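WP5 quarterly update. Target: Myelin and lymphocyte protein. Source organism: Microcebus murinus. Length: 153 aa.
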Amino acid sequence: MAPAAVSGGSTLPSGFSVFSTFPDLLFVLEFVFGGLVWILVASSLVPLPMIQGWVMFVSVFCFVATTVLLILYIIGAHGGETSWVTLDAAYHCIAALFYLSASVLEALATIFLQDGFTFKHYHENISAVVFSYVATLLYVVHAVFSLIRWKSS
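Structure tokens (predicted):
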């Protein structure tokens, strides 16, 4: 890796260097785990529509926004402007907060599912909780390193 990538350089990568720089490499993992949360929540039984509706909104919003940002970075739409560094840091901070709230609410919904629902639905929700917390961790790490990059820009 390039020294700027390790130290959290002040510019955003473009092209396929997005896949070789940290923290931008985390886009791929956020995409995968966010998609898993979306799939698991969509396929599970919904006993508490308000709670799981928020989890669904967060997972779909972050999945789509992460995909759009990844594509924009690959095509180099940012043009090296520092305003995109601010956008990247702000998005990942908001996504981390959204995912943290969604993870806690999904865990609460899973606790309520413990009695009276099938074993399969309970396990789907447990998987959604685990993947949601993994996605939260990824977004938090990405937010921290994006903030470091923002501060040095």
